[in-house]
Specification:
By secondary structure, this protein is an all-beta fold. Helix content is about 0%, strand content about 50%. Strands 2, 4, 5, 6, 9, 10 and 11 form a 7-stranded mixed sheet that branches. The protein has a 4-stranded antiparallel sheet with strand order 1-3-8-7, with no helix packed on it. The protein is globular and about 40 Å long.
């Protein structure tokens, strides 16, 4: 069993930045590809970004390229999502997920373990 937990959500003004962190424990962190998803009120969960186990391959939702950056620190078992130039429509619960695949993309079925989510609210 793998435990995934997100950190760093909160309230930020539009145009601001926020960095989310995600820690996975229970198995070697470097074995997993990691992904970020989000779900806004009344909407379906959507893919945000993912990063391979080695950190060399990343995927982003087209609409978020250039504003969001995913990275990982295998030395400290953490994956990060840096979010810049935030907009009100980025308001959502952000979920981190771990995949036993070495590379995982936007397909949520590739992910085996999910965190409880962290709320990000962007105000005008």
């Amino acid at each position: 069993q793998v435990h995934v937990v997100e950190f760093g959500g909160g309230l930020v003004q539009a145009g601001g930045s926020l960095r989310l962190s995600c820690a996975a424990s229970g198995r070697a962190f470097s074995d997993y590809a990691m992904g970020w998803f989000r779900q806004a009120p009344g909407k379906e969960r959507e893919f945000v970004a993912s990063i391979s186990w080695s950190g060399t391959t990343t995927y982003y939702a087209d609409s978020l390229k250039g504003r969001f950056t995913v990275s990982r620190g295998n030395a400290n078992d953490t994956v990060y999502l840096q979010m810049n130039s935030l907009k009100e429509e980025d308001t959502a619960v952000y979920y981190c997920a771990a995949s036993v695949y070495v590379v995982a993309n936007e397909n949520s079925r590739m992910y085996d373990y999910w965190g409880q989510g962290t709320q990000v609210t962007v105000s005008s």
